[in-house]
């Protein structure tokens, strides 16, 4: 089984670099799908309150026979949970659904800057970390502007920022900011949701060259950039394929060829307006 390396977050907590995301996994299928992901070697699960499948993740863990320190579980605050007291209550709800005493990582899912409460929400997250209900706290879909506001008005640098990131949207500016400030980069939709990106001739050409699939080439590109990834698949053979990227290395030229697919435009929602 693939040995996945860990990355040390800015608070010393180790996160497996390669995980499994459960966005759009139907709640009734989640326990079974996550059990298969554990069987395929995944030990890091990325869920969210908005995915409505935290119970299934918790059930899969409870049935797995794995100990708590063998798995890394992330969840994210729903968009209706902003504000100090609401955010504190919201994590209690997640812990009950997951059947856990703490999560490994709790993220603000979207900043909702027009609502203007993410600083207050972050101060509640700092308390949740101090209480041990979240071993690490971070954000998702934050821009440089949102991160700078947290830096100016609060005491804790987010451990991670989880952002849309794939070869068509390489997020150079944000990744540079993260590197300078000790924030780990998590890439969502790392293979572009499996769409036509994977038919791109550059990627199919590299797949032939390395004897891997286009998805594996893209995931290897992320791994070499130092990104944390958690592609989603309902199919056990693809779960195994996706995580099997630690036995080859893209050359510098090939890394650049993948990065050159950047179009500079996102496929998902704009963080300044979403939610
Ligand atoms: P993804 O890039 O992981 O693509 C998943 C899709 O690609 C699958 O549904 C399947 O159709 C296809 N696929 C999977 N493996 C494949 C393979 N080997 N070959 C060909 N096709 C394959 O997209 P995603 O699910 O959107 O993102 C991954 C995770 O990121 C999510 O499950 C979730 O945990 C997280 N996420 C977070 C946010 C956020 O706002 N923070 C947004 C979207 C996703």
Structure report:
The chain is of the alpha/beta class. The protein has a single domain (6-194, 222-233), classed as NADP-dependent oxidoreductase domain (TIM Barrel, Alpha-Beta Barrel), CATH 3.20.20. The chain has helices spanning 27-39, 54-64, 84-98, 118-130, 144-153, 172-181, 201-210, 214-225, 236-243, 252-259; strands at 6-8, 14-16, 20-21, 44-46, 72-77, 105-108, 137-140, 160-164, 184-188, 228-229. The protein has an eight-stranded parallel β-sheet. A two-stranded antiparallel ribbon has the order 1-2. Strand 1 (6-8) and strand 2 (14-16) form a beta hairpin. The chain is globular, with a radius of gyration of 18 Å. The chain starts with 5 loop residues before the first strand and ends in a 16-residue tail after the last helix. The site of nicotinamide-adenine-dinucleotide has 25 residues, from helix 9.
């Amino acid at each position: 089984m693939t040995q996945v390396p860990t990355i040390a977050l800015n608070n010393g907590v180790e996160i497996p670099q390669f995980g499994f995301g459960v966005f759009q996994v139907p709640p009734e299928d989640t326990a079974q799908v996550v059990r298969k992901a554990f069987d395929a070697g995944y030990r890091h699960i990325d869920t969210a309150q908005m995915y409505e499948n935290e119970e299934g993740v918790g059930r899969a863990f409870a049935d797995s026979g794995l100990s708590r320190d063998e798995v890394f579980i992330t969840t994210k605050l729903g968009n209706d949970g902003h504000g100090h007291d609401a955010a504190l209550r919201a994590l209690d709800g997640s812990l009950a659904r997951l059947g856990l005493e703490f999560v490994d990582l709790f993220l603000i899912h979207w900043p909702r800057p027009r609502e203007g409460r993410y600083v207050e929400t972050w101060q509640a997250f700092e308390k949740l970390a101090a209480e041990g209900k979240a071993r690490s706290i971070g954000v998702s879909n934050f821009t440089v502007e949102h991160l700078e506001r947290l830096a100016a008005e609060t005491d804790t640098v987010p451990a991670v920022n989880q952002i849309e990131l794939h070869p068509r949207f390489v997020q150079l500016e944000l990744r540079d900011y993260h590197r300078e400030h000790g924030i780990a980069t998590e890439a969502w939709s790392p293979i572009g949701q499996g769409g036509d990106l994977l038919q791109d001739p550059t990627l199919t050409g590299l797949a032939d060259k390395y004897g891997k699939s286009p998805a594996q080439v893209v995931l290897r590109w992320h791994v070499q950039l130092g990104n944390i990834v958690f592609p989603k698949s309902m199919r056990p053979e693809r779960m195994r394929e996706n995580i099997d990227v630690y036995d080859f290395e893209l050359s510098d030229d090939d890394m650049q060829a993948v990065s050159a697919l950047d179009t500079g435009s996102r496929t998902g929602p704009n963080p300044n307006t979403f939610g």
